[in-house]
Amino acid sequence: MNSTRLPANSHSLLNEIQALGIKIEDDGDLTVREGGAGPTDHKAVSIFKTTVMIPVLSPSAESSPFIATKPSKMGVASLKRDGKVLTTIRFIGEPRFYSEKSSDGIPFWKIARLHSKDVLATTVLQNCIRYKNKDTSCQFCAIEESLKYDTTIAYKKPKHLAEVAQRAVALDGVSQFIMTTGTPASTDRGAKILFESVKAVKAAVDIPIQIQCEPPDSFDWFTKLKDAGASAIGMHLEAVSDRVRNRIMPGKAEVSMAYYFKAFQAAVEVFGRGNVSTYILAGLGDTQEEILSMSERLIAIGVYPFVVPFVPVRNTPLENHNSPDKDFMHGILDPLANLLVCAGMTSDTLASGCAKCGACSTLSIFEKKHSA
Ligand code: SF4
């Protein structure tokens, strides 16, 4: 099979590869980040004409039937299953901006990271009020781990973000900037820090920006963020039932679902349908029915439910928790993609954000199957 020819079942195969991960025979120079928000134990892999984040360090990847040969200097490898070559894949290499520094001497790779093949991503504030206490922390989260490994800095100042964005656009042609943040103690929940960050980046370079935070106290922040230049916002539910929210994310679960929905509605009025999204981690205990019925409610008010398979991250309380299997994901992504296509709210219609990047889920690939 040649990598330029798509197999008819590529959506199913990609879903399975993302669920099980890839074991690399010899990972040579491939680097993977320790801790942090976003996909930390993954590698971005180009496969079947798309780029997806694939677990390569999780326990399931260790025993995955999908095995990549030692990547070449260009990151190219053969992907095998049961000894048979399935296709050629390419691990996305380090971007050029990683070799440069900010004007105050901080390596750019500590300020922002390349996600997928062309997304710049940062965690503006690498601390979170909920993180240090196990009664409040989200059990899947590793936000402060990368600080321990000195692979990031605690606070990325607006000027840091402006400088890195400018160079990442110039050197690597990044297409969007995603800014998330740990939650500070202030009632704006990080909106103010994001506002200052967006303003500085937009003054330096014209790039679509998605910001991600918890619902703030005042919904006026949505207008301020939009006016500063953000084109989309993510407010992440992560789990959808109170049962799982209380168990997995006891601190964040204190923000009620009713408040999330009020915030979603206010944000859609400002950013427009689809440009408000929410991450939902499948595999933490919510049933397929619970995730699908929540997704229906979200789509009805113009919010894009970005459902991704949970992947355990090392050094978190859930590091030994299994990822959902391919059938569980298929049972959600297939009907969900159909709902999104019918609503005219597919990944390719969005202005910016994780749902536009799409690499942490195969949802957008299922959308293409339903659009065909
Ligand atoms: S979907 Fe979001 S978290 Fe995942 S690779 Fe893309 S930008 Fe990063």
Account of the 3D structure:
This protein has 372 residues and is of the alpha/beta class. It folds into 2 domains: 10-91, no CATH class; 96-371, Aldolase class I (TIM Barrel). Helices cover 33% and strands 17% of the residues. The chain is built from 12 helices and 13 strands. The chain has helices at 10-20, 59-62, 145-148, 158-172, 191-204, 220-228, 242-248, 257-271, 288-300, 326-343, 354-357, 363-371; strands spanning 23-24, 42-47, 50-55, 66-68, 76-81, 84-91, 113-115, 119-123, 176-180, 209-212, 232-234, 276-282, 303-309. The strands form 2 sheets. Strands 7-8-9-10-11-12-13 form a 7-stranded mixed beta sheet. A 6-stranded mixed beta sheet has the order 1-4-5-6-2-3. α5 (191-204) packs parallel to α6 (220-228). Residues 38-39, 53, 115-116, 119, 121, 178, 354, 357, 359-360 line the site of iron/sulfur cluster (SF4).
